[in-house]
Amino acid sequence: MGPFVAVMFDGFAYGMLLFLVSVGLSVTLGMMNFVNLAHGAFAMLGAYVTVTLMNTYGWSFLATLPFAFIVAGLASVAFEQTLFRPLYRASDLDQVLLTIGLVFMAVAAVAYVFGTESQPIHIPDYLRGFITIGGANFAVYRIFLVSVALLVSVLLIAGLEFTRFGAQIRASVDNQRMARGLGINVDRVFAYTFALGSGLAGLGGALAIEVVGLDHSFALIYLIVMLIIVSVGGLGSISGSFVAAVVIGVSDTAGKYYFPYLGAFLIYLVMIAVLLWRPAGLFGKR
Questions:
Q1: CA within 13 Å, CB half, 257
Q2: Domain ranges of the chain
């Protein structure tokens, strides 16, 4: 049972990483009804902030994580106020064309500045190695990753479901005119929402480097996975994204270990099965 438990834990840790990277897309796409395919670019931005601070300026890994969150969040606010806001009432096609174009621009810019090779980082020694419990080996870094993701998920769900800010987001999305009439600054709420979602993407991108690596194609590769998680979890459901990320992470890791001939295709089979069973996703309402 030791190897089986270890594989399941690795899959769960990978799912937590996917949740961190994709939960912001669940917020903007599910709650704000904005198709932000540039979400992966903000995750890549956070990752390259960590790489730059560590490799160029000698910062410690943990010290770079808040800055990965902050820089990605601030960058998203700049884009939200200049490019995204005029498209809130535009068609889905217009939103897709603009945001996917930004992804290609981000990929080209990163390739020009950093090159196309994989970017290495060196995490601290206390995050390396394994802990053996009951014959199963658990990577210390993955334990750290799971701890961060669980903390973020609890704070995010509580903040969106049980706070005044979460109520303002829902009110602003449902009826902007009524929300403005009640004194809610809708533009500021949307800017904060974008900053939160993209900041979490930047944090997830920084944490992902040690697990999946980092190069100029990061934003495109993981955009597909983000969309799968949001679709399987259901639009507008943070808890749904959490469950979907766990399902996809475990399926992908266990599938590659026990069914190597299926490879990465297993997550698509899981997506198809779930959406045939529940077309709105596991916890989606529409």
A1: 15
A2: 24-222
Separation of alpha carbons 193 and 23, rounded Å: 12
Nearest to 250 by CA among 3, 1, 9: 9
Sole residue written with tokens 């769960």: 12
Residues 6 or more apart whose CB falls under 8 angstroms from that of 115 comprise: 216
Determine the residue type at 143: I
Hey, what amino acid is at 47?
A
Give which of 218, 172, 144, 145 is closest to 28, Cα–Cα. 172
Token code pair at residue 221? 């590769």
Note the pLDDT tens digit of each residue in 44-61: 999 999 999 999 999 999
Place of tokens 């766990």: 246
Count other Cβ atoms within 10 Å, centred on residue 132.
10
Distances (CA, A) of 98 to 36, 84, 88, 131, 227: 9, 9, 12, 46, 17
Q: Which residues of the chain have pLDDT under 70?
A: 1, 31, 263, 285-286
Rounded to 10 deg, the angle between the 186-212 and 39-55 helix axes is 60
